[in-house]
Amino acid sequence: MRSDVPKVLHPIAGRPVIAYVLDIVRSLKTFVVVGHGSQKVRAALGDGLTYVVQDRLLGTADALRRVAPLFRGFRGHVLVLCGDTPLLEKQTVRRLLAEHRRSRADATVLTAHIHDPRGYGRIVRDVSGHIIAIREQKDASPREAQITEINVGAYCFQAQKIFDVLKRVKWNARKKEFYLTDAIEVLWTRGGRVGTVLAEDASSAFGINTRADLARAERVIRTRILRKLMLAGVTIVDPATTYVETGVRIGQDTVIYPCTVVHRDVTIGTNCRIGPFARLRPGTRVGDHVEIGNFTEVSRSRVGKNTFMKHFSFLGDATLGADVNIGAGTVTANFDGRAKNRTTISDGALIGSDAVLVAPVTVGKKAVVGAGSVVTRGKNIPAGAVAFGVPARIIKK
Predict the structure, then answer these.
(1) Out of 141, 203, 242, 329, which residue is the most buried by the measure of CB atoms under 10 Å away?
(2) CATH architecture of the domain covering 214-396
(3) Catalytic residue status for 130
């Protein structure tokens, strides 16, 4: 990744890569093996997880060995997932677990068929079709390299069986690490039962190793988000140029126009029109029948129903009532150099084009701020008043 940020903390659609993996196992007792950037990972993920430190990065088998002492006497099963596979979906893992329990296997491996298997471990089978090994790319023979069934990196093991087998996994001198994938061959040679489950969506196998991988995963997740919204009654005019992050709620019959960015923790009501070229940042709440038009940004603000702000405006840390009209070029100047301050624009107010509202300030119900005016800090505009000028003065009450 060529980054000071741990790979699993790079964001995809507003969340760290590893967050998508943790979503799958949220109901389970979860252990996170951390190495590079462990303090950053802990800070990002918070409490509720058990962290196990791999102080020397000796490979995936060694990572799983580190948790073995925590499983002494445990007779159940262990699900192992890679933290850099954000496209893996919960229903796929459920199928893996169900098959593992049904077959009573010692190990069950999630696999996928892909057109270009370069870089992935190959699933090696015997003449009867049973999996006997996972061969990593650099260790594969020319014949094995032609195999298109690959290891996704999700496994379910009988706990005591895998921890016993890990003691027998040998050091890979070429890669200078212990491969967890080598445990499959060791298990098979010792008479263990190994099964597989084929992922229906081959994208489940996709892991993050480069910035290009990150961008590709972002496209897939963004497509999933937009598809879900469209099936729920939201019109996305051009999905290819619309960016909606996770954790966004949008009401039925709302239309999102091209080149719009909606960050996480945003709620948009029903029958709204957003964009084109609009940006809604975290903490924004938009009521029903609202129009937020081109080159408009809204951040940490509440916008009441039937409110319009159609062109070239910025609202930050603002509360807008219902039936407000925001003229083109309006800005809430929310930062005073030390803190963000709030602007309140009450029901039915009209803010003329190119107005600047210096927070903290309140514009009363049905008040009018003339075009080009600067309403200075603390100079509230009473309900029904008309204000104009630089600085703005009340010219009519």
Answers:
(1) 242
(2) 3 Solenoid (2.160)
(3) no
From first to last of its 397 residues, the chain has per-residue pLDDT tens of 899 999 999 999 999 999 999 999 999 999 999 998 899 999 999 998 999 999 999 999 999 999 999 999 999 999 999 999 999 999 999 999 999 999 999 999 999 999 999 989 999 999 999 999 999 998 999 999 999 999 999 999 999 999 999 999 999 888 789 999 999 999 999 999 999 999 999 998 899 999 999 999 999 999 999 999 999 999 999 999 999 999 999 999 999 999 999 999 999 999 999 999 999 999 999 999 999 999 999 999 999 999 999 999 999 999 999 999 999 999 999 999 999 999 999 999 999 999 999 999 999 999 999 999 999 999 999 999 999 999 999 997 7
CA distances from 371 to 302, 326, 353, 357, 378 (A): 23, 10, 5, 12, 19
Domain(s) of CATH 3.90.550.10: residues in the chain = 7-205
**Whether 10 contacts 214, CB under 8 Å:** yes
| CATH class of the region 7-205 | alpha beta
> Which residue is catalytic, options 10, 36, 130, 311?
311
Domain with CATH 2.160.10.10 in the chain: 214-396
* Cis amide leading into 360 (omega within 30): yes
Number of residues assigned to the chain: 397
